User: What shape does this take?
Amino acid sequence: MPEVLPAAVLEVACLVKRYPTGDLALRDVNLRIGRGEVVALIGPSGAGKSTLIRCVNRLVQPTSGSVRLDGAEVTGLGSTALRRERRRMGMIFQEYALIERLTVMENALSGRLGYTGFWRSWFRRFPQADVAEAFALLDRVGLKEMANKRADALSGGQRQRVGIVRALMQRPELLLVDEPTASLDPKTSRQIMRLILELCTERGLAAIINIHDVALARQFAQRIVGLRAGAIVFDGPPDSLDAAALTAIYGDEDWSATLGQGRKATDEEEEHHSTVPDVERLAGLA
Amino acid sequence: MSASHATSNPYAAQAAGWRPPPLIGSRALRWALLLGGLAWFVAALVTMEINWARAAEGWQRGARFLAAFVPPDFVSKWDDIAEGLLESVMMTVVSTVLGLVLSVPVAVGAARNLAPRPVYLLCRAVLVVSRTFQEVLIAILFVAMFGFGPLAGTLTLAFATIGFVGKLLAEDIEATDPAQLEAMRATGGSWLQGLAWGILPQVKPRLLGLSLYRVDINFRESAVLGIVGAGGIGATLNTSLDRYEFDTAAAILLLIILIVMACEYASGVIRRAAL
Assistant: This one.
């Protein structure tokens, strides 16, 4: 859909990951993400979605292929250079992955670890500017009053907001988002997805969002990539994701209900009405 | 419930025959093991050769021995007691701190999820050695190396602390949630920052509990180590027993009990405040 192809923030080429067990998780994946582009990565469990985004920040070591962040090769970097590149990629996790026993503020500041020396971080002597930014971001996601609460005292939606703040504290150019809504109820899921989308727009951030919920992906992402058995089998705008494409990604199933959910006019069930305003707001946003 | 209902259910026969699968499949082997174990116990009991006449006589000796402890005498050897107690307290503090400082890196090395295989094996070996040898044996070795006195005892307790805290802390580290460490690595944090932020908050309560418990153990052990010449209140206790000064020994034992109880109470308060 974009008339002029924006400069790529991430370029994945010929990426292969074979685990020591012999499982081929990724086979020759090619993916190009433009600056500010939000991509939903869908596919069945075990298709390699999680492996793919972890190969980008090298929490998983790719077997072969290339990962370029802003043109700079990430594979093969030594630990110091790798840490510097990781600062530019914020990650958001399925089960939040917060430090449960630390406060919301400490969790937010942990996003600055890559910029902070060990002893400064040990004594929590982060630069004033970082603390101020953390307060601003917590306020932005509606958690201003929670700064000194322990992370394990928060609800699921609140925790994921802290996870988002932590990722943004890195001042990243790319967000790697791994099943952000898998542990949340439908309403909170939509709120979290909307928040991520809004923040990406505000900051011109690109994002790869792994997601199981096809309706949610269609509702929020500008582009959908379908992964099956470690290979990309679909890549296109949400509108072109039809029953045939879903069958190619997931296998045979009656997809009519799933596809119907995105179209507000055809909603019959009562519960879907609550999502209608979300769709409209998003339409205005995108 | 009713018979007609039971017969109408096609799974009735299967249901009647169902039992949980036994631990040992063979019925013969099951009984053989049970009877064999029982026979062994009886045989062992018979070989104990309890001398009932001697035991009856011993009642009185025991009573006389205990009577000698009453009333406890805190006064006549007070200087020796105070010196011994102070020495024990010093040994406890120094050995616990030294042991903890050394056990944390060993625990990190002995955690399968953090250490590469060679480091893991080395640290596990250190823990096994530290835990295999009883404190008294180590103390005898250190007394031979460093001479009589509290230095040998302190080193013994520090060494034992490594094995105790190191093993239990390593197990706690292995049980941590890996996502938290992964998240810290993903922010660009260093390996040390990963430990301090991704692991330490998760194991902190356990580390604190183990440390307080070890203070307790080290004080009690220091009373035993004196017997092999490794200093502390144990040396004072041993001397008083050798001289048949049971009233002084009673005073020492009472003080040890009192201090252990105080430690117990303090650790409870600290743990509650810190959790």
